[in-house]
Amino acid sequence: MEDPVRSIIDLKFMAQENVWEREYQNSKLVTKDDKPQTDTLGFFKYLKRDKKTPLEGLRALDLGCGTGRNSNYLAQEGAVVTGIEISSTALRLAVERAKELGLPQTASVASNTGSVEYLKGDIGFILPFGNDSFDLIIDVTSSNSLTESERGLYIQETHRILKSGGNFFVKTLCKDGDHNAKNLIKLSPGKEKDTYIMPEIGLTERVWSKEDFVEYYSRYFIIEKLEKKTNYSRINNQSYKRNFWLAYMSKK
Ligand SMILES: C[S@@+](CC[C@H](N)C(=O)[O-])C[C@H]1O[C@@H](n2cnc3c(N)ncnc32)[C@H](O)[C@@H]1O
């Protein structure tokens, strides 16, 4: 039987892939919850209620889908979903869960029920999809760890493959009012602007001021709503108060 996790990158083993792989094998940061986050559900509700866009039949892409909590949910709601992810371990869990849920593992638009396909790939690279392929793209805290040059490709590619009028949801780390982010930048700075290296994990993350976020994303997308949200992140069994941006966007 064909492996549903098709490798679409043929690059040398990247440092970032190593960090995420290690993280999924021995999690200090990520959770393996299989239900969508409240914030993601809030965005789906906004699509359905405010934008009169039912999830059923949508062609959706989940960037850095992890163990598939959002991809599998979207497929259960009738969307035709592709989840793209750098960690093989996370992908295996996502595929297993999709099987348990009885979801067809294909991204065939012809299917009249929801379905999900999982691909191994890098969201900071050219994406293997044609122009205007998706109605919906989500990035739930996945692009935080891209470098600036990878981020340049990520935003161009996201814009290229999203249909005109399509929706884009981003949840990303916020710098404003986040005491822990400011401490991390001071104590363990990364090489690029507003980045730090997570001690022990070795992961570089970028945090965004409102001004920088708006300036960056509005070059490509219409920001319909931008909300600051405080969550508690667990790292090594300790709880840290962190701020996030929830951005509801669409393509011009
Ligand atoms: C904080 S986790 C969030 C996972 C998922 N979006 C969720 O909401 O559960 C970030 C995810 O992005 C993935 N990731 C990070 N950099 C990536 C890259 N360059 N390409 C593809 N996936 C990446 C990680 O492996 C990880 O699964």
Task: Describe the protein's architecture and organization.
This protein has one domain (6-251): 3-Layer(aba) Sandwich (Rossmann fold). It is built from seven helices and ten strands. The protein has helices spanning 15-25, 38-49, 69-76, 88-100, 148-161, 179-187, 210-217; strands at 6-7, 59-63, 80-85, 115-120, 134-140, 162-173, 195-197, 204-206, 221-235, 238-251. The strands form two sheets. It has an eight-stranded mixed sheet, with helices on both faces. It has a two-stranded antiparallel sheet with strand order 7-8. The termini are far apart. S-adenosylmethionine (SAM) is lined by residues 16, 20, 30, 64-66, 69-70, 84-87, 90, 122-124, 140-142, 145-146. S-adenosylmethionine binds at residues 16, 20, 30, 64-66, 69-70, 84-87, 90, 122-124, 140-142, 145-146.
> Order of strands side by side in the largest beta sheet?
1-4-3-2-5-6-10-9
> What does the radius of gyration come to?
17 Å
Rounded mean pLDDT is: 90
Q: Secondary-structure element order, as H and E?
A: EHHEHEHEEHEHEEHEE
Q: What overall form do the CA principal axes indicate?
A: globular
